[in-house]
Design brief:
The protein has 259 residues and is mainly α. The protein is built from twelve helices and no strands. It is 63% helix and 0% strand. The longest helix has 23 residues.
C-alpha cells in the first residue's frame, strides 16, 4: 500500500503517536499533540526521528536536560513538556502586565507577606482623609497590631492618590467581609477578592491558566471569579501600579526565576 508523503507536522504527530501509543494517559496530555488524525507512517523510523530531534529542541529552548533524562516514552514526554513550558514562559514574559509577571515568580512565603501588605494598604487607603471617629470605626474588626499597622500607613498615604470610586468599592467589600471575618482573615479575604477582580479583568482565561502553571505559589490557582466588581476597569492599571510598588518592598522579589 502506498503512503502519501508526510509534511513535517504530520511526521511529528505520527512520531508522537508511535512513541506514546501504549501510554494513553500521557498521550492525551502531550503538549504537541492535537486531535488531528495521524496518517500512516509507513516504514519511516519516526520514533528515532523524534528522539534525535529532542536535543535540538532543548538547546533552542535553553533547557538543560536532567542527568536522569532518558529516551523512554515517559522520559521523552517529560523532556518535551519542559521545552513546551519554557516556550510558554517566554510568551508570557512578553504579554503579562509587570505586576503579574513579578507575582508569578514569588515564593509562597513572600506571597503571604505580599497579601498582608496589600490588605493593610487597602484599609489604609479607605481610611485616608477620614475623621478620627470614622477611622476608628474602620479599624474595629482588626486586632491591635493590625490596627496600628493600618493607622501608621494611613498617615503616610495621600487621600487623593486613589479615586473615591475605587476606595468606596473596597470599603463596601471590607464591611461586608467584616460580618463574618476579623483580623488577619479579613485582611487576606479582601486582598484575594481584589486580586481575583484584577486578574479576570487583565488576563484572558487562557493567560490565567498559563500563568497558574508557572506560578511558584498557589495564589493564582485560588483566585476565583469575583462575586462583585471591586476595581473600575479604567483604574485597574493604577491599582496594579500600587501593588507592584508593594512587591518591590519585598526582599528579594526574584529569588529564583520561574520555569
Amino acid at each position: 500500500m502506498s503512503v502519501a508523503p508526510l509534511d513535517p507536522e504530520d511526521r511529528r504527530r505520527a512520531a508522537l503517536h508511535c512513541l506514546l501509543c501504549e501510554q494513553p494517559g500521557v498521550l492525551a496530555r502531550h503538549p504537541l499533540l492535537d486531535t488531528a488524525q495521524v496518517r500512516e507512517a509507513g516504514d519511516i523510523d519516526l520514533r528515532s526521528l523524534l528522539i534525535d530531534e529532542l536535543p535540538l529542541e532543548e538547546r533552542r529552548a535553553r533547557v538543560t536536560p536532567s542527568v536522569a533524562a532518558s529516551d523512554s516514552n515517559i522520559g521523552y514526554y517529560l523532556r518535551r513538556r519542559e521545552v513546551a513550558l519554557r516556550d510558554e514562559w517566554r510568551v508570557l514574559l512578553g504579554t503579562l502586565p509587570d505586576f503579574w509577571r513579578v507575582l508569578i515568580e514569588l515564593s509562597p512565603n513572600l506571597v503571604d507577606e505580599f497579601i498582608h501588605l496589600l490588605g493593610v494598604e487597602m484599609v489604609a487607603r479607605m481610611a485616608a482623609g477620614k475623621s478620627k471617629a470614622m477611622i476608628n470605626d474602620l479599624l474595629m474588626p482588626l486586632d491591635r497590631p493590625l490596627a496600628e499597622q493600618v493607622l501608621t500607613r494611613t498617615q503616610a498615604v495621600d487621600p487623593d492618590s486613589m479615586p473615591l470610586s475605587v476606595t468606596s468599592a473596597w470599603e463596601k467589600l471590607y464591611r461586608h467581609g467584616a460580618k463574618r471575618r476579623i483580623g488577619q482573615r479579613l485582611i487576606r479575604w479582601i486582598c484575594l477578592a481584589l486580586l481575583s477582580d484584577l486578574i479576570h479583568q487583565r488576563l484572558t482565561a487562557t493567560r490565567r491558566s498559563m500563568a497558574a502553571r508557572h506560578s511558584r505559589s498557589n495564589v493564582l490557582s485560588i483566585l476565583k471569579q469575583p462575586s462583585r466588581p471591586i476595581v473600575p476597569a479604567q483604574h485597574a492599571g493604577d491599582v496594579e501600579a500600587v501593588a507592584l510598588q508593594l512587591l518591590g518592598s519585598l526582599t528579594p522579589i526574584n529569588d529564583a526565576p520561574a520555569s
